Amino acid sequence: MNHDLSEAFKTTVLCATGASSLRVLGVIQELWSGYGKILRLELHGADVETVVVKHVTVPLAGNHPRGWNSDISHQRKVESYRVETNWYKDWNDRCGAGVRTPKFLAFDRVGDEVLLVLEDLDAAGFPARLNGLTTNQIENCLTWLANFHATFMGAKPGDLWEIGTYWHLDTRPDELEVLDDPALKNAAKAIDIKLNSAQFKTLVHGDAKLANFCFSENGDDVAMLDFQYVGGGCGMKDVAYFIGSCLDERACEARESPLLDAYFSSLRAALAIHHPDINPDEVEAEWRELFPVAWTDFHRFLKGWCPGHWKITGYSERLASQVIGRL
């Protein structure tokens, strides 16, 4: 398979980095459903030895792993790459030390192809990808999310998703249509409205799963990738999704309270720096109440998208039942 870049895109990388030449070292990963690939490039004559490029190519035919090949699905993916480009061009440099992301180096578009040139986080001290986390590492990820949410508290999404996350109800009509849970299906809109009516809103990462966190060699420092679904919303969407991505059912239930305590402790500290005018007690009171609502919102998507998924647990069903009962 050809992993080379066009001459135009090579020129973009060379100009952005000051390199005299480059070489494709390999594919880091294929993008979801055949929409391109992420490559690592070796540079010669530049200040850095490597960069990472996200090369988006819109496929001619759908090839979704779970069979979702509708025009809605295609348009959502195309929009997600437009949003990610806007994120890196217009927002990424607002992230401070506690919100480590890849540095944005360049952007180019030729026809339907898009190229993002980014810092190589592996080379920058974040080479580890972890499948299981210690309590301390989970809390470090929650601190990253808290710092992110505090940094962008009250921000208007503008050129990002108006409502962040890849499972947002308005972008997932197909999955709602096939959802075989009448109570959850009937409550979906009310759940969505409750989340979107939060007084305190921020930017959410929108895909804050464990696989999108990069770790230092000792696992203590974290950085975050993949901003295709960043947009407005309640921070609990990221927190609920992250916890569910790295813990099994029993651990989610047993550790919900202490993990939320850790998140809100970090959020308070970050709000004191970024938004001392905001009362952290009010934020915590509202968002704690919305945690099970955010969890149920993702549960709604998952049951429609993949009814046999391992994340559909008794804990999730109980939370959903409680949330629906309170609506």
Portion of residues in beta strands equals 15-25%
CATH class of the largest domain: Alpha Beta
Counting helices, strands and paired strands, the structural category is alpha+beta
What is the share of helical residues?
A: 40-55%
The number of distinct helices, counting runs of at least 4 residues, comes to: 9
How would you describe the overall organization of this protein?
- The chain is an alpha+beta fold.
- It has two domains: 7-119, Phosphorylase Kinase, domain 1, CATH 3.30.200; 135-326, Aminoglycoside 3'-phosphotransferase, Chain: A, domain 2.
- It has helices spanning 7-17, 71-91, 135-151, 173-177, 182-196, 236-246, 249-274, 280-305, 314-326; strands at 21-30, 36-44, 50-57, 104-110, 113-119, 202-204, 213-215, 222-224, 231-233.
- Helix 5 (182-196) runs antiparallel to helix 8 (280-305) and helix 7 (249-274) packs across helix 8 (280-305).
- The longest helix has 26 residues, at 249-274.
What's a quick, concise take on this entry?
With 327 residues, the protein is α+β, with helices and mostly antiparallel strands. The chain is 44% helix and 16% strand.
Write the layout of secondary structure elements.
Layout: H1 7-17, E1 21-30, E2 36-44, E3 50-57, H2 71-91, E4 104-110, E5 113-119, H3 135-151, H4 173-177, H5 182-196, E6 202-204, E7 213-215, E8 222-224, E9 231-233, H6 236-246, H7 249-274, H8 280-305, H9 314-326
Antiparallel strand pairs: 1-2, 2-3, 3-5, 4-5, 6-9, 7-8
Helix pairs in contact: 3-7, 5-8, 5-9, 6-8, 7-8, 8-9
